Amino acid sequence: MAEQEAQEIIKKAIEGDMDAFRLIVLKNQAFAYSVSYRFLGNAEDSEDVVQEAFIRLWKNMARYKPEIKLTTWLYRIVVNLCLDLLKSTYQRQRKIQVSEEYAANNSVSSDASVLANELNGFILMAANDLTPKQKAVFILRDLEDLPVEEVCDILSISAGNLKSNLYYARQRMSAKLKMYYQTTDKITMI
Amino acid sequence: MNRCEFEKRIYLYRELTSVEKEITDVHIAQCQSCSELATRVFQEQNLISNIGSSKFSVKNSQQLTQRIMNSIERAEKSTSGFNGLITFLDSLFVRYAFSALSILLITFFYMEQQHEGHKAQTINKIEVNHGSILNTSSFLKAHQKRREDKEKTISASRYSYNRSERIVKTL
């Protein structure tokens, strides 16, 4: 029933109904923001990417094919925008500020939350050292927990390519986490 | 299967098929180093999964939605004039009108070309019949006539000279 309703909203949006598209934005902007934040590490750029992604989605709604999930299409746009932004020199300069901005924006009171936030920031920083494709695969599969098929669709890669990138990404992240726990002596967290 | 291939399988355990998982589990149970690696990797993956479950949320969700919708409305307004023109040009009436105009133009150019071709042919015919550039027969005729006239003049003058010479002699 919910699926039918969603299809109805998409159909109305394709016909140019702004209110229907607003519902699509409300439903999907949180996920789109979360993905772009994990890629870029700062709120300002992430909001810009989300905004641009929805504008592109609106402009291309007429080309939407029901056999592809709308969310898959949206995430593909978000990921491509993020990867393009990461390639730019501006973003390479911003990488350094990520952890500081994350710490400032996520100040919490309890010790557990502090540790969780610190680890979250560390994972974001560590993921910056992965190649763009490894980073994309790691974020979508391990952090966002999307199915293998959907990740392959979003990134337009084969399952073999995904596994290969995922293996190297997990290996590198594992090495980084090992170092993190050795230097900060937080083995109790695991 | 060597250790390295099992190491790869441990890292990709979530993506393995049930058969592959069974084979890997059997190996992990028998191999000390793979068992240690599996314990560490599975713990790390749990930790990453927990971190992933806490999503980053927009500070002001409503504001972002409004910002997105405003920018879409602005983009729509700027393209509406252009879109109107495209819609008009895309209409069936305009399409038929353009097709008819194209056919008319093609017919006009074809007829014009045919007319020009006929004109050119006539000019060529005239040049073949009366032209003096490449027609040598007219030149030869004129040349022969000039030569005959010249010879006549020479013979006439020679006659008058001989006559005057004879008169002088008789005197």
Give the helix/strand class of chain A.
mainly alpha
Largest interface: A-B, 41 and 31 residues
Structural class of chain B: mainly alpha
Helix and strand run of chain B = HHHHHH
State the end-to-end CA separation of chain B: 149 Å
- Summed up, the helix count of chain B is 6
CATH topology of the largest domain in chain A: Rna Polymerase Sigma Factor, Chain: A
Tally the structural domains of chain A: 2
Radius of gyration of chain B: 54 Å
The CATH architecture of the largest domain in chain A is Orthogonal Bundle
* CATH H level, superfamily name of the largest domain in chain A: RNA polymerase sigma factor, region 2, helix turn helix motif
User: What is the number of strand segments of chain A?
Assistant: 0
State the end-to-end CA separation of chain A. 41 Å
Determine and state the CATH class of the largest domain in chain A: Mainly Alpha
Structure description:
The complex is a heterodimer of chains A (190) and B (171). Chain A is mostly helical and 190 residues long. Chain A has helices at residues 2-14, 18-40, 43-59, 70-87, 89-94, 98-105, 111-127, 132-143, 148-155, 159-184. The N and C termini of chain B lie far apart (149 Å). Chain B is elongated. Among the domains of chain B are: 3-53, no CATH class; 138-171. Chains A and B meet through helix 2, helix 3, helix 7 and helix 10 of A and helix 3 and helix 4 of B.
